[in-house]
Amino acid sequence: MSLTILLEDDQLLIVNKPATTAIQSANPTEVTLEQEAKRHCTNGVWLVHRIDQPVSGIVLFAKTAEAAAILSEQFKNRSIEKEYLAFTPKTDLPKEGLLVHYFERYAKNNKTNAYIDNKPGRYQAQLSFIKIHSTDHYQLLLVKPLTGRQHQIRAQLSAAGCPIKGDVKYGARRKNQDRSIHLHAWRLRFSHPTSHLPVQITCEPPQQDVLWNSTSEALQQLTHPTT
């Protein structure tokens, strides 16, 4: 596996993770994104956030412990903005909106259940969405998680009646042949850990897929809107 580098300087390494590639693994024989990042950065890297194995897109590494601490604090206080693209079956969701659910984690099967009602022991998850594109059978959502919960987008979209294409763990009817799901970490905005200047990174979705290839015009409108 070779790294697809989106941005690199003396503090940061930002890469495009292919879908189905593990970031870390307990299996010593499995090639991981973190291993490749460490080979590239001989002085070491610090992983400051994760995306799930079947998900593609932006992953951020720090190249110093100090940068890692600063970026981790930004994630903790939610000053880092993350935007994802998700293909789901067409539904009657409004054009845009806010989803609010209450989560319970089940460690046995590594799954999160999302509920409308709150009960003791549950914790809140929020995400906003906008419909930006559709095909005959699918809709493309631009999704922004407002809380940082494990499997948040997957669980909340499933609870809203629109599981992500290929995500059989969260209610999709069939898996994708390559075991990916149609969820892509598309854009990341944050403050640089040393210069404190704003950084915005955008990562195009996979090009070897008919659905993702249909998004180019919609994404062009998002990045370069017409007046």
What would you say about this model in short?
Helix content is 18%, strand content 34%. It has 227 residues and is an alpha+beta fold. It is globular and about 50 Å long.
Please give the structural blueprint.
Layout: E1 5-8, E2 12-17, H1 33-40, E3 46-47, E4 56-62, H2 65-76, E5 81-89, E6 96-106, E7 111-115, E8 123-134, E9 138-145, H3 152-159, E10 183-191, E11 198-202, H4 210-213, H5 216-223
Parallel strand pairs: 4-10
Antiparallel strand pairs: 1-2, 2-4, 3-4, 5-9, 5-10, 6-7, 6-8, 8-9, 10-11
CATH architecture: 2-Layer Sandwich
Structural class: alpha+beta
Query: In oligomeric terms, what are we looking at?
Result: single chain
CATH homologous superfamily heading: Pseudouridine synthase
Would you mind describing this structure in some detail?
With 227 residues, this protein is α+β, with helices and mostly antiparallel strands. It has a single domain, classed as Pseudouridine synthase (2-Layer Sandwich), CATH 3.30.2350.10. Helix content is 18%, strand content 34%. It has five helices and eleven strands, in the order ββαββαβββββαββαα. It has helices at residues 33-40, 65-76, 152-159, 210-213, 216-223; strands at residues 5-8, 12-17, 46-47, 56-62, 81-89, 96-106, 111-115, 123-134, 138-145, 183-191, 198-202. Strands 1, 2, 3, 4, 5, 6, 7, 8, 9, 10 and 11 form an eleven-stranded mixed sheet that branches. A hairpin with a 3-residue loop joins strand 1 and strand 2 (12-17). The longest helix has 12 residues, at 65-76. The chain is globular. The chain starts with a strand and ends with a helix.
